[in-house]
Specification:
28 strands; 35% helix; 6-stranded antiparallel sheet; alpha+beta
Amino acid sequence: MVGVSDGQRSAQAPATARTRVGRPLLSLALASMMDEVHAHSGAVYLRAAEEPVLEMAVMAGLPRAFAAPWERVGLSAPIPVAEAVRERRLVWVGGEEDMARRYPRIAVVLPYPFALAALPVATGSTAYGAVFVTWPGSHPPELSDRERDHLTAACDRLAVRLERAAEESRPVFPEADLLAGSPVGSVAGTLGTVEAARLVARLPYGLCSLDLHGRISFANAAAAELIGVPVSRLLGTQLWASVPWLNDPVYEDRYRAALLSQHTTSFVALRPPGDWLSFRLYPSTTGLSVRVTRARAVAEMSRTAPRAGDGTPARLVTISQVLSLAGALTEAAGVEDVVQLVADEVVPAVGAQALVVLGSRAGRLHVLGHRGYQDPRVVERFDGLPLTEPTPGTRALTSGVPAFFDSRRQLEHLYPARHATPDGFAAWAYLPLIASGRPVGTCVLAYAEPHSFPADERAVLTSLGSLIAQALERAMLYDAKHRLAHGLQEALLPHSLPRLPGVDAAARYLPATQGMDIGGDFYDLVPSHGVAAAVIGDVQGHNVTAAGLMGQIRTAVRAYTTVGQPPEEVMRSTNRLLIDLGSDLFASCLYLRLDPAHGRAVMARAGHPPPLLRRPDGKVRVLDLAGGPLLGIDDTATYPTTEVDLAPGSVLVLYTDGLIESPGVDIEDALADLGHRLAASGDLPLDALADHLVEHGPGTQDRLDDVALLLLRARETG
């Protein structure tokens, strides 16, 4: 029978639920349902009024803490109760293996043997909520027809009652949780209370009784002596809370495992300084009986049991490791970053020795990265393999189902072709990387020795696969955008500079290190009518729009130059074109007509940083040119020109503001520093000088803006 709990839940329930009178609809329905199918725990969820959310309204048979992560559940969540409502069907999970495979997030929190059924509480037109019930791990792997019929009928009846309550405007509130009531007089009725206590006191080992919350309701003197804590301090407390050396998650986990699976569990713990105690937990639906004895074969246990302070983790992967990995993966930019992080963080944490990350493209398998293989050819031979090939890597990627192989024999039994491709390892985990509901790849973990994969470890690995998948999807998208950006930028900038009589030229372009690695900086060198024109500019923004507009401006400047327009007209025509295009973006520009035969250059400037001129004697000056406003602002703007002497050996430095601008650096100081470096290194070959200027600029390391640089050196024309 079930009884009302001690009020732990009712303290959380709204006042209306606590003061309401009448039949507890949900509690009675749940208790009846569990009794009919001999389930030992369960819960009823109700649909939230204005949200696609299920809220737990009552739980029975186990403390609510067991299901705390799922008190509020989104209808789209990958858990059984949400799936039951979405698909309007009974969802059956036959045991821990089934749970680890289909619902790894639940299996990570509850890695115990139990079976579960989830059903919608719905009429033909409305879903009111859902119910789940659980059985111990001894339940058969299939739900019987009788159990299925009872559960379905009970949920249908509950749905009708909820529908009637809604029609009558009677709200249904959360109710106090139901826990199994304490047995009253079962032993006392046979032997008498006093005699029962004497019987227990005479036994040579310690005995404790725990309620469903793990609190000690009885402990004999032998238990208190063994544990080293008086009975008065044990009563009403949890062992792992009141005994410091039992304050370890692994011991509380055994209590949870016993209750949920209804299987006897045990553990061995070290009572400082050197006494080993054995705890054996016998569960029932009313609580647990615990037998405490001195552990035998202490030497053997000392080799296997975790000691305080030895650094042995209680779990395969600790919560701190998961949080650290999740944080690191959010910072991974490209696919190679993800592979490196998994190799550094996951592989050692799970005890593996090697890693392969696989993806697919055009129906074929592709190796995205690998670590730990002495001969890389062993891995690379799988690159380009059709996804139709029967290999564990392709099967995991296409099916989305993880595969675990404890030994080489097990792997080769299912995939005989692996006989021909030994990789030197003895066990493998193939984890499908599923993001946004679709497989994006497979993570293969390889172990040097045969390795068993219990259900809880499989659940942890599968969940880690989900983290890796999200990062890999972002990284693949980032790499695709990166390739697109670079391809577009390369298409819009000149592939090479033409050779001109009397002028040597060199150019450099560096994308911003933040964003899409694409921007509006451009340069060009155009031979025309026996002379040459050079242009450099910067369109506002760092995106595809800025890059596209940059391409249009560069094309326009080249066209106006080719038809012979003078510098001031080239600038005016380009300005009008930019305004006619209706763009909201502006552009700076510096245009110059070179005449090395006569040793001069004519320049026009539109809001662009001033160029630098290094004379043949090594002196450098900033050319303070007359100019007009940015292109794209005023359709009546004019752009006056300035003539500059350009003797043989002179070097003109044209650049965009990304070369000299950097947070915390005064632009005048940066410009002066650029002049000093040009003066000191101006005799270098032009390509070496270009590399020197971009490598040592204040704005070229962590670039918020892209950088364009065009160097022109006049030479003798004879």
